[in-house]
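Support request from a user on the community tier.

User writes: "When I paste my structure tokens into the form, the page sometimes reloads and wipes my input. The last time it worked, I copied everything first. Here is what I submitted, just in case something in the input itself triggers the reload:"
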């Protein structure tokens, strides 16, 4: 049986597809129908989707060794290149999903994750319970291609819903939701400047990367790390 309830909530939307409500039901059909009855209104604000516009709140990282600019300026041969990579959605055939069950103040989840320790840490932090109160079972990781290398918001939602209704809850992300509910490889712009002498001996290099990241968390790929 469905009942009509007026619930007013205000929150800031930080990303496309951000969950704002969850429906718990005994069948998928009932849950989908109930979700279709949820009304959401927005106060529109300008989005931030242009990577060419610098975000003053962004956390830039710099590594420097020697005087690259001076070496480039005095190089007999200079080469400047710019490369761009598009956003890549690496989504497996098997969608993300989780079953969450509470036994008192202890949580057990069954989830396809290659990093059970990370799932325990994330759920403990989000739910405010000790890590030793959480068990994560992942007998078959399945495909993830890196998109399920961490615990995403749907897992936290399932655990919160199970605690509220005091029953096990299963939540499976739809194919469409995979494209904004779990991670992807962000778009990048690479600027590479090289300097050398006439014999081809490299004398200077500068590597600058501009990359997409979320507005609530800064993520940086390790490919810009320098060693040696």
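"...and here is what came back when it finally went through:"
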């Amino acid at each position: 049986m469905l009942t009509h309830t007026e619930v007013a909530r205000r929150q800031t939307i930080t990303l496309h597809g951000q969950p704002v409500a969850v429906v718990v039901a005994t069948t998928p059909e009932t849950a989908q129908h109930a979700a279709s009855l949820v009304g959401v209104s927005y106060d529109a604000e300008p989005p931030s989707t242009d990577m060419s516009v610098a975000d003053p709140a962004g956390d830039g990282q710099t590594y420097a060794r020697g005087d690259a600019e001076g070496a480039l300026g005095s190089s007999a041969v200079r080469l400047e290149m710019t490369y761009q990579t598009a956003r890549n959605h690496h989504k497996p055939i098997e969608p993300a999903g989780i079953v969450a069950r509470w036994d008192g103040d202890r949580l057990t989840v069954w989830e396809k994750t290659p990093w059970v320790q990370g799932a325990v840490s994330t759920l403990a932090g989000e739910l405010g319970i000790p890590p030793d109160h959480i068990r994560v079972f992942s007998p078959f990781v399945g495909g993830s291609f890196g998109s399920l290398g961490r615990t995403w918001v749907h897992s936290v939602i399932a655990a919160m819903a199970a605690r509220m209704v005091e029953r096990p809850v299963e939540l499976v992300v739809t194919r469409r939701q995979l494209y904004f509910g779990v991670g992807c490889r962000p778009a990048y712009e690479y600027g590479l400047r090289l300097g050398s002498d006439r014999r081809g001996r490299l004398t200077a290099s500068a590597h600058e990367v501009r990359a997409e990241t979320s507005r609530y968390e800064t993520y940086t790929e390790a490919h810009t790390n320098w060693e040696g």
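Agent notes: The reload is a front-end session timeout and is unrelated to the input. The beta strands are 77-85, 97-103, 106-111, 134-137, 169-172, 188-196, 202-211. DSSP finds five helices and seven strands in the chain. Escalated to web team.
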